[in-house]
Amino acid sequence: MPHISKRFSQISESKTVALNSVMAKMKREGKDVVGLGAGEPDFDTPDHIKKAAINAIEQGFTKYTPADGMFDLKTAIADWLLAERSIQYEPKQIVVTCGAKHAVYESIAAVCDPGDEVILPAPYWVSYPEQIKLAQAEIKAVKTGPDNGLKITAKQLEKTISSKTRLLILNSPGNPSGAVYTKEELADIADVIAESGVYVLSDEIYDQIVFDDMEYASMADFHQQLGDQLIYINGVSKSFAMTGWRIGFLAAHADIATAIKKYQGHSTSNPSSISQKAAYAGYVEDKQFVKEMRKAFQERRDFVHDRLNAMPNVSCMLPKGAFYAFPDFSAYYGGSITSSLEFCAYLLEEHRAAIVPGVAFGMDAHARLSVATSMQNLEKALERIETGLKALA
User: Fold this and answer.
1) Which SS3 state, helix, strand or coil, does residue 138 take?
2) Residues β-bridged to residue 324
């Protein structure tokens, strides 16, 4: 038997990846499965971004770039942050990464030593706990509730911080809940962070997908108060429909950015040069497509939210951002089904509808549905889910 390190042995496979593998196998077998598990826009990458990549290939821009990303892209990101978030970062404070997921892990590893605590509001994105484990830090999960819109409160945070706490991870809009923090909520949280001296990692990868004309509030709005404690993360995957291009970034104090640059230089080195050119076009050229994508997601969100809440004994909070719904199906647990894993397996195997179990996000009563698919697929999937629920009633 090969020896696997303790760090790698304790990591769990992503349940979204596992679900997609099962669904792909069923489709290869000719089974009609409707999948609502995808965490990516179903829109194609805009043409002007694709053309920038093609031009890069034709012009021979296929060599190494600096490990932390090409200077022009970092400058474009800095300009975007100033225009969008009114926060001034120098290019040396920005590291371009192989997707925002990579930026999250590198940031955790850069500021946390073994045994440090990371506060993680639940529900949380599936990869946060595993990345914390990889960094040999300790997870301090904080359960949120529907009364607070599945968001951590400043009071909860204040009670949870201990002498071992190093970092808070905040994700708004949130995956899987679609919860979006208001400016007032973030202001109260920023007060606690500033007083405690802990870092806050603000993952804002869904920041362009906010509904109902809601004014988006960013943790970057409080950068003067937070100073060196803020680690800001974003990328092109969701906003520009570029999931497969693998370009994210982090912006932080220059010492943190430098440390991550050194680590990246010895691990992945630079992100794809071609993808960087494409991302540059995304940041500096027309962004009208973002509004069109957001409009479509909101229409689907409305349909899914209303349809779910019309089902007996199902409750679903109205998502204010991202492209997910996170309903509570626990009223249907009982008998052979006692968990979200068993519930989702039942829907997949018996009714050919694939959704993601809530246990993957730290809330077993729920399951996640993605609205990043056609209205036709959503209608078909929800019909199958309702049929499955009726069979359990």
Assistant:
1) strand
2) 370
